[in-house]
Amino acid sequence: MTAAENLSEQLYPAPIKTVEEGSPAARAGVRPGDVLLRVNGEAITDVLDYRHKLERGVVTLEIARPQQAPLVMTGVPTTAQDHHRLMLPAAPSLDETFTFTVEWEDPGLDFEEVLFDGIKKCANKCDFCYVHQMPRGFRKSLYIMDDDYRLSFLYGSFVTLTNLTEGDINRILNENLSPLYVSVHTANQDLRQDMMKWWKLKVKDPQAVQIREMIERLESIDLYTQIVLVPGRNDRENLDETVEYLSSRPNVISAAVVPIGLTAHRTNLPDVRTFNREEAQDTLKRLNIWRKKFLAERGTRFIFPSDEIYLLAGEPLPSEEEYEGFPMLENGVGMIRDFLTEGLPELPAALPYPMKVILGTGLLFAESLDRAVEPLRAIGGLEIEVRAVENKTFGRVTTVAGLLTGRCFRHAVKPGEADLLIVPPTTLRYGTELMLDDVSLSELRQEFRMDVRAGGATLGELARVILQGAQSSGPQFGMSAHAVKDKPVDEIVAEASMHGRGQA
Ligand code: SF4
After folding, report:
1. Residue having the nearest C-alpha atom to atom 4 of ligand 1
2. Which of 10, 192, 286, 472 has most Cβ atoms within 10 angstroms of its Cβ?
3. Which residue from 369, 367, 391 is spatially nearest to 463, judged by alpha carbons?
């Protein structure tokens, strides 16, 4: 049977990104760009399946080398231009295959993707879904409504479990895919259906949507849960019931409580609103009663309100200790406290030349950030302005920093008005300098005629970014920091110590 014939039997060819030098795969002649077809004669669906099969010890891997795809005509051309347009590459041929065997050894392969059979999409239409509230025109990947338990296990993304098949459930249990991160929202089944509106036709296993049964069925799997709180729906007494239920399940490790996030783009969507101050205060009051009780009884607070709830309520953030190691930072639980926890580095008394810095952030965090950077204002020559940037893309109702786009900064900052603009690191796509709307930091540098940098995840990192900005903001950006251009940060700090004011 050729590889091409195998493809019709649901193979999921996995493109290989890298081959470790000296590894069994390298010795067998595998190259980046080859694809893995089978392990021990069986198709593989994802990296978890791959790793699981390797655990058998002696395994044979079947590799294919894609051949150059010929161009094929996809329609009837009527003009020369058409001819060009209709010539598309056919799927590459995978007929050239070879195998190699490893015995209790890692083959040394790294893949382009972790899911070979594609991402599992969600079966819901939640009232609070962010994807449904996104304006048009962003890159396609931002509109993907994924709900894949494998990504939950691999990267900690939250899943609803409403799209599981019986096979998925068995796999989670058999392969011990623990922990998982689950969006529960409410333990009241009718209300959950009302808020999440899963499509009956897309639900593979009716048991999977029964949240209590599912949590109980997954009893050997640790679950980190979250509740997206919608005022007037799953808050107040309903929230108490949900907390009570979740805390009764030994496999539920914790529950994060996050308020609904809204944008101005809610056409044809259910009428929901965000929390006002009194409602946020009421929520905290309820949760604090539970937190105290759990801490006394089981040594953990179990339930963790997100930063946004404290800011909405206008109440002080919990101490570092109360976050119990910050396990849910990605979910907006403890980000601000974590930001404040790393103290400032030793600060210079003064910059050799004056510099103006704008710290751009969302409306929600601006006041707290302004207070946090106060010690930096003692540095001579450093002018810091915290600018609350209105979200012009998602609407004023969206106040968190992470959803600011290049467009928002274009509205908020005038060219040449400062030497350095610092944007929140959460506005950038992971590992890139691109914002949500694909505007890059270098574009903003050009347009604003100033240095533009991503700030740090902590106050200490932010201070270092500012000092590094002082080091490299040069005449090309304009106003005032020219002469510090070639001085390394260490030198600036050392100079300051000589002036006798090391610590702000
Ligand atoms: S589960 Fe709900 S919130 Fe998540 S993508 Fe689907 S509809 Fe949106």
Report:
1. 129
2. 192
3. 369
Residue 312 in tokens = 């909405």
Probe ligand 1: pick from 146, 157, 196, 226, max atoms within 8 Å of CB? 196
153, amino acid identity: F
Q: Give the tens place of pLDDT for each residue, 172-228.
A: 999 999 999 999 999 999 999 999 988 877 777 777 789 999 999 999 999 999 999
> What CATH class does 131-339 carry?
alpha beta
**Cα(69) to centroid(ligand 1), Å:** 38
Ligand 1 centroid to Cα of residue 148, in Å, is: 11
Percent of the chain with pLDDT over 70: 87
What's the rounded Cα separation, in Å, for the pair 154 and 482? 46
Distance 134 CA to ligand 1 centre (A): 13
Banded model confidence at residue 85, pLDDT cuts 50, 70, 90 = low
Domain 3-111: give its CATH code.
2.30.42.10
Nearest CA to ligand 1 atom 2: 126
354 Cα to the center of ligand 1, angstroms:
48
- List the structure tokens of 148: 């894949």
Q: In degrees rounded to 5, what are phi and psi of residue 403? A: -105, 15
Token couple for 274: 């965000």
The full set of domain ranges for the chain reads 3-111, 131-339, 342-469
Ligand 1 atom nearest to CA at 123: 6
For 390-440, strand residue ranges (E) read 420-423
* Listed range (269-273, 318-322, 460-464, 491-495) with the worst mean pLDDT: 491-495
pLDDT of residue 330: 79
**What's the CA gap between 104 and 101, in Å, rounded?**
10
